[in-house]
Amino acid sequence: MEYTPNTDHGILENEQPILQVEDVTIRYGDVPAIQNVSLSIAKQQITSIIGPSGCGKSTLLRAFNRMNDFIPEANITGRILYMGTELYSEETDPVDVRRRIGMVFQKPNPFPKSIFANVAWGLSINGYQEGIEERVEKSLRRAALWEEVADRLHDSASSLSGGQQQRLCIARALAIEPEVILMDEPCSALDPVSTAHIEDLMFELKQRYTIVIVTHNMQQAARVSDYTAFLENGKLVEFGETNQVFTRPHHNRTEEYVTGRFG
Amino acid sequence: MTPGNALRRHAIAKVFHLLCATVTWASVAVLGVLLFHVSYSGWMWLDGQFLSSFPSRFPEKAGIQSALWGTLWLITLTVSFSVPIGVAAAVYLEEYGGKGKLSRLIEVNIANLAGVPSIVYGILGLVVFVRFFGFGRSVLAGSLTMSLLILPVIIVASRESVRAVPDSIRQAAFALGATRWQVIRSHVLPSALPGILTGVILAMSRAIGETAPLIMIGALTYVAFVPNGPMDVFTALPIQIFNWASRPQQEFHQLAAAGIIVLLTVLLLMNAIAVLIRYRTEEGNK
Known about the structure:
The structure holds two protein chains of two kinds.
Chain A: E1 17-28, E2 31-42, E3 46-50, H1 57-64, E4 74-82, E5 85-86, H2 94-100, E6 101-104, H3 115-125, H4 132-142, H5 146-149, H6 162-175, E7 180-184, H7 192-205, E8 210-214, H8 218-224, E9 227-232, E10 235-241, H9 242-247, H10 252-258
Parallel strand pairs in A: 3-8, 3-9, 6-7, 7-8
Antiparallel strand pairs in A: 1-2, 1-4, 4-5, 9-10
Chain B: H1 3-42, H2 48-52, H3 65-96, H4 101-113, H5 118-132, H6 139-163, H7 167-175, H8 180-209, H9 212-216, H10 237-245, H11 250-285
Helix pairs in contact in B: 1-11, 3-6, 3-8, 3-10, 4-6, 5-6, 6-8, 7-8, 8-11, 10-11
């Protein structure tokens, strides 16, 4: 085995990390949701975060684009570095962070506007003035939705099916050219066909973007991701290449979880 | 399964249905009788002369022009003061303000203000706008007083509809790198607009029918000219109606009925505009 990640600290040794989590603890009031987690997210790879309900997966994911800022009682200690700069320093503007690190949510949440307006809005607020139409088309193509909506761009987004809406949300996130895309259980509200669509899409997107996905579905993590982090009770139990985590886990708890004995 | 129980439950459901229907139709019937009575007695007085004449002690010469224009001035100014302030206050309380004790205290107080008798606002308007600011018995003083009166209604209704905007929409917008103002401007306000307009309709309907605060601040009954600006003295439709209705002669009672028809028509027209805007935005939001 030529590659041995340090599973206790979750630091990758042979990859260029785009995000580095260093000893991060996140509390809601006094209740810790994430405790002393360190790991790194490899550039242009898919990293999945798995673990039983309530283990802090989503909390950790939302720490990457500072979405936890909206929860007044949430506080974070430790450091998260994004391409070397600290995400939680005074000088870092959360608005800028979210522009560079996009997010796709658990339930499709298109704006109550037209398909076109959903994708174009992010562009207009971020100051794009020219080539909006081309960018909308490009984003919809990358999200593998263009063929289905090209002739009805000005229809309401709510007329789309759930799977299409989720791909629209991905297109919306892609339009502003983020570097990282966070996906919070993006397929949990979708049927198997739509799920397969989104998973195929993730392989395509990997060519350009770094993807971090939280999932309940272990098969999905095994299918799509390059690296897997297993969390339990807010602690990182194991982190490594997906293949290794699923076939030769170093920890008993990981093995029990990935083989479906609990969780 | 117990069939006896099922029958009983169906019976209760039917009784409740019937009760609701009775109450609804009884209210509609009362309204219908009222409207019929008013139109019946006021109809023959309603003509161009009535709309274009000033008050007079001769019923056949009396008209409603000054009161009609006074009301239009009053409502236009009131809406332009109270809607921006009310909506801004609601957005601040919901989107920027905390969710702590202070916020709840403010919420309870605003709800209470909506229940304060209108005459109290009249006294406040008299002291603050007429005397302290020296606006006199003007349309401006009247509409500022009226704005205070309907602000709580607008704030409470706007807050409710801002609160009803799903958080998932806000999160989606924030996740695209939007500032709070961009989120409010593009998503929260458009989604909340139908609800806000419903509140505005209710508030306007209340303002257009209020008499007590206007009498308190000294809106006159006999005004023989149309206000030319916000500093002119004025009268309003409900004051004119009240004045006519309190006279002994039968003709003046019929004039009052005609005035009520005019008042209701103005109200319906204003509400129609608001409903139209609401319909348009709902279509746009789909």
